[in-house]
Amino acid sequence: MDGPVILDRKTRLLTGATAAGVLLLTGCTSTAENDNGDGGLQTITEGQLTVCSESNYPPFEFEQDGEMVGLDMDLAAEIAKDNDLEVHHVALTFETMVSGAALDTRQCDIVTSALTMTDERRSVMDFSEPYFDNQLGLVVKDGSDIGSVQDALDSDARVGVMQQTTGDAKAKELGLNSVQFEDVLMFQDLESGGVDAVLDDLVPIAQHSEDYPDFVVVEEVQADDQFGVGVRKGDTAMLDAVNATIERVKEDGTLEEITETWVPVAHQ
């Protein structure tokens, strides 16, 4: 899949993602694992696929009308459907998920939360095949003197990043004066002047521009960044099941349909 692109330096971000049909997230977790189907696939709770994600990272996962929706939620629903399971969603902090603790302590069967696959994260969880190619963008308020990463460096601008994300790592690599946030409150800080810019994934930036129409991307920042589904280390049955679904939705066009529904930026 081609990554999202911003057409020029001062092009306003496109918005208006259309909500897709949403599955009702039901059920409750238990501490025991249960066999499903032919006994090969085990889940925390019988008949359920317990999916962990953040609660507010649109358009990948966010709450809408009391339900969790988004690109990752639709993908999780496809995985559950292929294995005759119902989806149960658990909202956790990003740090708990990327550390592997949520999987190790059986809080979830899989993690779908716009997870970039890195060597560090592979040491604590196994990853599926990639399902999304990600890019970063440096966003400022319209009228800012910052027109590029170099401008941010030269002016020692305060650049908001979400901690333990690709944006966080890239800001350090570039030598930016980064300010870490636990969640997407960094966009509110940009609007109020608490930070001068934000470095984050292009897709969530575009989504947040619905609330902040004066945000503009001034530079696209390249990143070797692909998203995958995280599973418990060594759980080959779950990994195989997830990969089988990803292969299917790529081949039958379902993944393209899901992506086009939720990604509110222009593509070439």
TrEMBL record:
Subcellular location field: Cell envelope
Residues folding into a coiled coil are none
Similarity annotation: Belongs to the bacterial solute-binding protein 3 family.
Keywords on record:
Signal
- What is the protein name given in its UniProt record? Amino acid ABC transporter substrate-binding protein
Record GO cellular component, one term: membrane
PANTHER family assigned to the protein according to its UniProt record, in alphabetical order: ARGININE-BINDING EXTRACELLULAR PROTEIN ARTP, MEMBRANE-BOUND LYTIC MUREIN TRANSGLYCOSYLASE F
Molecular function, one GO term: ligand-gated monoatomic ion channel activity
Ionotropic glutamate receptor C-terminal domain ranges (all copies):
48-265
**UniProt organism field:** Kocuria coralli
The domain of life is: Bacteria
Q: Does the keyword Transmembrane apply?
A: no
